[in-house]
Specification:
alpha/beta; single chain; UDP-N-acetylmuramoyl-L-alanine:D-glutamate ligase
Length: 302
Amino acid sequence: MRIVLIGEAMLELSQAADGWQLGHGGDTVNMAIHLARSGHNVAYLTALGSDPFSDELRNRWRAEGIDTSLVLTDPTKNPGLYAIRTDNAGERSFFYWRENSAARGLFTAQGIEAALKEAEVADLLAYSLISLAILPPEARQALFALCARVRARGGKVAFDGNYRPRLWPDVATAIDARDQAIACADIGLPTLDDETLLSGETSADAVAAHWQRCGADEVIVKLGAQGCRLPDGTLLPPPERLSPVDTSGAGDAFNAGYLDARTKGAIPSAAALQGHILAGWTIMRRGAIPALDPVVSDMYPS
């Protein structure tokens, strides 16, 4: 199965025992890595620079099994950077330096036409509200048009409503982009906290109803430590209560676990359980994409 993810990947500074550790992350690239580790044919569509840090990102993604043929190059730009600080409960705060990142010019980068033709034959296309936030309005419309072409060919589109207020000029613009994206999606992956920030809605049932009215058939509302609301309205808690070390990337891991299982034929409840397990493994380690270890390796094919 061919899966294409779209978005921005950045350099990541995370706290370490002796200071700061440089890694990499970004919501959709986190999903891409987890899905590649699960044995899928995964490509990542983004833009990077021609600097050493961009080269290192490409090499790391290839080492994870990601197809980087859709990673375009803007020699005048560099990757964005973000830092994560965590409190005593493992909750994270993000600090960004991304205003001039190469990914913001993805839809005008050299080679984008050929890359979009490759992406439109995907069996599954996935992106997030952050993917939309970094793009100018005309590029957002180009992304929605890509979604339409994927679906016309029989592929599926998954959309995560990952909301970062600082990336948007105002709430109304973010809501409009979100609703247009939902209308182009088969699978919706909202988070209740994000939806509350956007619209003030505090009910998972109401969030699911809105997303379904907008056009997403299969909606899973993520509820943090409480678990998730399944498409049939059932609440599914995580299999165990954990004391997180770092909650960075938890939602991305859940998305990847869910989508992996669904593409392999699992019913939504079983897919969500796999999402919970992968998210639980992630939050007990530092960084958005922890290195593989024996605890989680059993989830992936050898």
